[in-house]
Amino acid sequence: MRWIGTELRNPPTFDGTSPVGEFLDDLEYEVPEEKRLPALDVVIKGTSARWWATHKEDPTFWEKFSLP
Predict the structure, then answer these.
(1) Which residues are bridge partners to 2 per DSSP?
(2) Rounded distance between C-alpha atoms, residue 34 and residue 8, angstroms
(3) Which one of 26, 40, 54, 55 is most buried, by most CB atoms within 10 A?
(4) Which residue has better confidence, 57 or 29?
(5) How far apart are CA 67 and CA 36, in angstroms?
(6) Closest Cα to residue 17, out of 42, 48, 41?
(7) Which one-letter DSSP state was computed for residue 45?
(8) What is the C-alpha radius of gyration for the chain, rounded to an integer number of angstroms?
(9) So what's the pLDDT on residue 13?
(10) Are 1 and 10 in contact (CB under 8 A)?
(11) Angle between helices 20-30 and 33-43 (to 10 degrees)
């Protein structure tokens, strides 16, 4: 994955079938902190995307779901 200007290229996606912790680790490694939450609108698919649409306004999201 890489950023070209303000656009995310080749992002990892999450559809709920792989471990969420691994996905978040990949996203955290590849995406600068200030762009992680906006990137989730693009990289989460299927049922997971519907869940994200109802939870994305929570400002403590990253801290709650990141692995220690």
Answers:
(1) 9
(2) 13
(3) 40
(4) 29
(5) 15
(6) 48
(7) -
(8) 11
(9) 85
(10) yes
(11) 130
